[in-house]
Amino acid sequence: MRLLLVEDEPEIQSFLQQPLANAGYEVDAAKDGRTAIQLATENNYDVLIVDLGLPDQDGIDLILQLRRSGVSSPVLILSARRSVDDRVKGLEQGGDDYLTKPFALAELLARLRNLLRRNPATSEEATRLRVLDLELDFISRRASRGEEVLNLSPQEFVLLTYLCRHAGRVVTRSMLLSEVWGMRFQPNTNVVDVHIYRLRGKVDTEGRDPLIKTLRGIGYVLKDR
Amino acid sequence: MSSKTANPVMHSAAWRISLWATLAFAIGTLLVFVMLHRFVASDIQRRSDAWLTGEVAVLGDVAGRTPKDRLYSRVLSEVAELASREVPDKLRSNSNENDSVFFLQAGDDGTLKLWVGSGDGLPNLAAIRARKFISDVPYDLNVQGFKQPFRVASVRLDDGSHIYLGLSEKDVIRVLNNLRFRFLFLWLLIVLFGSVIVFFVTRRMLGHVREITEAASRIGQSDLSSRVPTGKRNDEVGHLALTLNHMLDRIETSVHQLHTITESLAHDIRSPLTAIRGKLEIVLSSDLKVEQSEQIVSVIDELDRLSEFLNTSLDVAEAKADALRLSKTDVDLDELVRIMIDLYEPSLSEKGLRVSLRSAGPVTVLADAALLHRVIANLLDNEINHVPASCTICITLGASENAATLIVEDDGPGFDAEIGPQVFKQRVKRRDSKGHGLGLAFVEAVVRAHGGSVTASNRPDGGASLSITWPREMEEKIDVSNSLALVNG
C-alpha cells in the first residue's frame, strides 16, 4: 500500500510516518502542494492524506487539481479548522473522508482502512457475520454467543455490528458516534462509554472470554483471535 | 395575517406621499384659479362698464341735441339699437329680439318716456325707481322677469329726465360659467392624472428602497459577502445603497479579521496538540506499566478536553460577535432529540435520571446541524452534571407556524439564586461543577446566531426549566402574499 502524506507541519509529519509504516503503508511525504502534485502524478498511490492548511495553496484546491490531473485515489483530509466547510462535505460525498485535528491515531488508521476498502460488505456478510463464537444475523436482527441468544436493544445491535465489522481493529468514541448515531461532536460526558459498558454486560457475561476490550485513551477493540 | 398587512397599498409610503402631494396640488391650483377667475370677472365688468358709460354718454348727447319732435324717439331708438349691436363679450344671439340690452328714458316725474328693448320696460323702470339712490357709476339691477341682473348706467339730461342703458349680465355669467366648468373638468383630470403619476413614481422609487431593505435584511441574516443592489442611479436611493455597501464592506472586513484570528489561533494550538496527542498514543501502544499508562491516558483526556474547550470558546466568541458561520440545512428536531435521548439514555439512567419526551411529531427547522447536535448534547450534559439522582427530565417539543420550541425541565434543585440571571454567561458555573462553564453560554450563543432565544427559569414547583425558541423560516411565504396583495391592489 503506497500512501502520500501531504502535511507541512514537520512535527505531525514525523510522528505520523512511523505508525503508518507500522500499519503496513509505504509512506511518501510532501511539504507543499507543488511537490504533492509532482509526486502524485509520477507515482501511483493507493491513498492520500492531505492537510488543508498548506503553505502554498488551499488543500481543497490541491485535491481538485489532483482529480483534474487524473489522480483518483481516495483522500483523507486533515483539517485544523474548527468548522468543516461545505466544500469538504462535498468531497466527503465523493468518497473521500475528513478528520479534524487533534485526532486519535487509531481513528486515522481506521478511516484509512475504510477508504481503502472499496467493496465493504460481501454477500455473506450481508446476512450473517461471525466473530469467534459471536454471531450476528441481519435478517432476524439477533445476536448470539455460542448457543445463547443475546437480548440486545436495536441500538445495541447496531453498535455491536459496527464493532464486529471492525473486529481486531481499534474504533474510537468519535467513530462510534459518527457511524452509529450519525453525529460528529465530542460529548463532554462519557455517553459512548456507558453504551459500551451496557453492551459488554450482555456480550461478555461471566464465565465467557471477554470480547470487547477497552483501550484507554484510544477507544475499543473487539477481539477476533 | 394581521391587519397590518391586510392592505399593503393603503399602508405604503407611496400611497401617503401621493395622497398629500395630490391634496397640496389640488388646493394650490384651486387658489390660482380663484384668483384668475376674480381677475377675469372684474376685467369683463370693467370693460362692460366702460362701454356702458361711453354709450350712455353718447345717447345722452344725442338726446340733448335731437329736437323733441316726432322723430326724437325714432332717432334715439335707432342709436340705441346700433349701440346694442356693439355689445362687448356678446355671444351669438339666437333670436332677432335683443334682450341683452335695454334703453330707457324716464321723465323726472318717473314716467316711461322712451323704451327700447324686449318687453314693455315697466318692470325695468320699477326696479330702477326702487333704488334709493342714483349713482353715476354703473350698478347691478335685478329686474323682475329676468333671471340675470342687468348692469345699468345712467345719465341725467338737461330737461330733468334720465336715460338708462342696461346690459344684461347673462353673457358675462355664461362666459364665467363656461370658464368655471372647463377649469373644473381639466382640474379634476390633472389632479387625478398627477396623483396616479406621483403614486407610481414614488412607488417605483420606494420599491428600490424596499429592495435595498430586503437585501440588507437577507445579508444581516446570512451572507455577509453579498451586497444590496445599487443599479445605475445617482440619486438619494443610489447613495443609500452605496453607503450600505460601504458599511457592509467594513463589517465584512471586521468579521473576516475575526475569523482569521480565531482560525489561526485554532490552527496554531491544534497542530501542536495533534503532534503531542499522537506521540502520547505511540508511547501508550508500547509496553508500559499500568500506572504509567494511566497517567498518559489522563493526559490524553485532558488534551481532548482542552481542544474541545478551545473550539467551544472560539464558537461562543464568534457567536457573540455575530460572526458564527452557519451552514444551514433542514433538520428535524423531533428526530434529532429522539436520537440524542437514545444516545444519552444509558448515561442518564446510570445516574438515576429518568427522561420523557413529549412531541407532536416532526418539527423541521433550518439550522446548522453540527451546532444543533452540540446544543442538544450540551443541554443533556448539563442535566447529567447538575441534576441529582432519581429526578425526572421532561423534554417538550412544540411548534407553531413560525417558531419551534424546545423545553427541557427537571424536578431537581433548579438554578442557584446567585447564578440565576447569569446562567448563560461564560465561565458562570456552580462551585462543584467540573465543566468550563461554557455549556449554556454555547447553547445561548448558537440559538441567538440562528435568530432564536433561550430563557432559563426555576419552575414554581421546583426544578429548572430551559426554554429554547427556534425560528422557522417563513419569509418566502410572506413575500409571496405581499406581492400578491400588491398585484390585487
- As laid out across the biggest beta sheet of chain B, the strand order is 2-1-5-4-3
C-alpha Rg of chain B, in Å? 48 Å
- Average pLDDT of chain B works out at 81
Largest interface: A-B, 42 and 50 residues
Structural class of chain A: alpha/beta
CATH superfamily label of the largest domain in chain A: Response regulator
| Overall CATH architecture of the largest domain in chain B | 2-Layer Sandwich
Fold and architecture overview:
Chain A is an alpha/beta fold and 225 residues long. Chain A has helices at 10-22, 33-42, 59-68, 86-93, 105-116, 123-127, 154-165, 173-180, 191-203, and strands at residues 2-6, 26-30, 47-51, 75-79, 97-100, 128-131, 134-137, 142-145, 148-150, 170-171, 212-215, 219-222. Chain A folds into 2 domains: 2-116, Response regulator (Rossmann fold, 3-Layer(aba) Sandwich), CATH 3.40.50.2300; 123-222, Arc Repressor Mutant, subunit A (Orthogonal Bundle), CATH 1.10.10. Chain A is built from 9 helices and 12 strands. In chain A, a hairpin with a 2-residue loop joins strand 6 and strand 7 (134-137). The two termini of chain A are 24 Å apart. Mean pLDDT of chain A is 85; it is low at 119-123. Chain B has 489 residues and is of the alpha+beta class. Chain B has 3 domains: 13-175, 2-Layer Sandwich (Beta-Lactamase); 222-325, Orthogonal Bundle (Helix Hairpins); 328-476, Heat Shock Protein 90. Chain B has helices at residues 13-65, 70-85, 122-130, 170-221, 236-285, 290-320, 333-350, 369-386, 439-449, 475-488; strands at 101-106, 112-116, 139-141, 150-156, 162-168, 328-332, 354-359, 364-368, 392-399, 403-410, 453-458, 464-471. The chains are: A alpha/beta (225), B alpha+beta (489). Chains A and B meet through helix 1 and helix 9 of A and helix 5, helix 6, helix 7 and helix 8 of B.
